[in-house]
């Protein structure tokens, strides 16, 4: 069943994206699941493509689950997105994919029990 794309969906997605810390990335599907919309990777991609600049979201940290960067027109090109991520310490394989095992964000990393 397709996810209904409405203002609540956008707000929920953007709230999750806003929490991704520097040096971490999250996949479209991961963002959807964390926002309560499992199976909505395509819709999350749509939301990222329409993210308002005034929200200043770290959209460059949202990537494909295989570690590939956004399509070429986004962020002024893949080279720019890669540079932004490398500035935050993100590492890449020789084939240009992000080292997802090392850099995938877990919202539990930010929790402190002490």
Protein described:
The protein is mostly helical and 114 residues long. The protein has one domain (7-104): Arc Repressor Mutant, subunit A. The chain contains 5 helices and 2 strands, in the order αβααβαα. Strands 1-2 form a two-stranded parallel sheet. It starts with 6 loop residues before the first helix and ends in an 11-residue tail after the last helix.
Keywords:
mainly alpha; 5 helices; 114 residues; Arc Repressor Mutant, subunit A; two-stranded parallel ribbon
Topology summary:
Elements: H1 7-17, E1 26-27, H2 28-34, H3 41-49, E2 62-63, H4 78-87, H5 100-103
Parallel strand pairs: 1-2
Helix pairs in contact: 2-3
Distance from first to last alpha carbon: 41 Å
Order of helices and strands: HEHHEHH
Number of domains: 1
The spatial strand order of the largest sheet comes to 1-2
CATH architecture, by name, is Orthogonal Bundle
Q: Averaged pLDDT, please?
A: 90
CATH class: Mainly Alpha
Number-wise, the strands total: 2
**Strand pairing plus helix content: what structural class?**
mainly alpha
Helical content class: 25-40%
Unreliable runs? none
Biggest sheet, open or closed, and with what strands and sense?
A: 2 strands, parallel
Question: What proportion strand?
Answer: under 5%
Superfamily (CATH H level) name: Winged helix-like DNA-binding domain superfamily/Winged helix DNA-binding domain
CATH fold node name: Arc Repressor Mutant, subunit A
What count of helical segments does DSSP give? 5
Q: What shape does the CA trace take?
A: globular
Q: Report the C-alpha radius of gyration, rounded.
A: 14 Å
């Amino acid at each position: 069943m397709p996810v209904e794309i409405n203002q609540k969906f956008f707000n929920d997605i953007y709230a999750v994206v806003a929490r991704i810390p520097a040096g971490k990335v999250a996949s479209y599907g991961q963002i959807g699941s964390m926002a309560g919309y499992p199976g909505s990777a395509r819709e999350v991609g749509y939301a990222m493509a329409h993210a308002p600049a005034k929200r200043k979201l770290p959209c460059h940290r949202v990537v494909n689950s295989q570690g590939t960067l956004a399509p070429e027109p986004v962020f002024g090109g893949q080279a720019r997105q890669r540079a932004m991520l490398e500035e935050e310490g993100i590492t890449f394989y020789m084939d240009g994919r992000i080292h997802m095992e090392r850099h995938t964000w877990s919202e539990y990393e930010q929790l402190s029990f002490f």
